[in-house]
Specification:
173 residues, 11 helices
């Protein structure tokens, strides 16, 4: 089969085919589909350990392709990265966020870990909130609440709290 033919396969089919053949030509489209989203997610969660975590993840997949047990490969990937991030507590994340030039990145880094994770998985990785809830092992309702709260907190951190009408009037006088 040509590489172009593999582009038509779903992630799960590609993984199954890779498990059988161990061909890098099969693995390459699978890797290319997910590497950027995983990187963006990891770099915002643990900037200094992103490369090590992702390298270990992809090497593990190459050596021991996972059994998905009905789960989507994309969801499985983010579950694995999430587990690795939880195990690898990065003490430098807070100080890196403070020295960052980007207000958005700094605001994201200030969010509580669960809110940050929900926000990034949904916004950066384009996962549905249902998938994020599955990854985080929380209810969909709770996931929505964390997502909305994270967005509100980022807006507050970037733009400050909104002026209260009574404060605006007091300033005018």
């Amino acid at each position: 089969m040509s590489r172009k033919a593999f582009q038509q396969f779903s992630d799960e089919k590609l993984l199954e085919h890779y498990r059988e053949k161990r061909s890098l030509a099969v693995f390459e489209p699978l890797y290319n589909r997910h590497k950027d989203a995983l990187y963006r997610y990891c770099v915002q969660m643990a900037p200094s350990s992103t490369t090590q975590l992702l390298q270990a993840l992809w090497e593990n997949i190459l050596q021991n392709p996972p059994q998905l047990h009905g789960r989507l490969f994309r969801n499985w990937l983010f579950i694995q990265v999430n587990k690795a991030l939880r195990e690898h507590v990065d003490s430098t994340t807070q100080s890196e966020a403070l020295t960052s030039e980007s207000k958005v990145v700094a605001a994201i880094q200030k969010l509580p870990k669960l809110q940050r994770n929900v926000l990034l998985l949904h916004m950066e990785c384009k996962l549905s909130l249902a998938s994020v809830a599955d990854i985080e092992r929380i209810s969909l309702k709770k996931c929505r609440e964390y997502y909305q709260l994270a967005r509100q907190q980022i807006e507050t951190l970037i733009y400050g709290s909104q002026a209260k009408p009574w404060q605006v009037e007091a300033i005018k006088e």
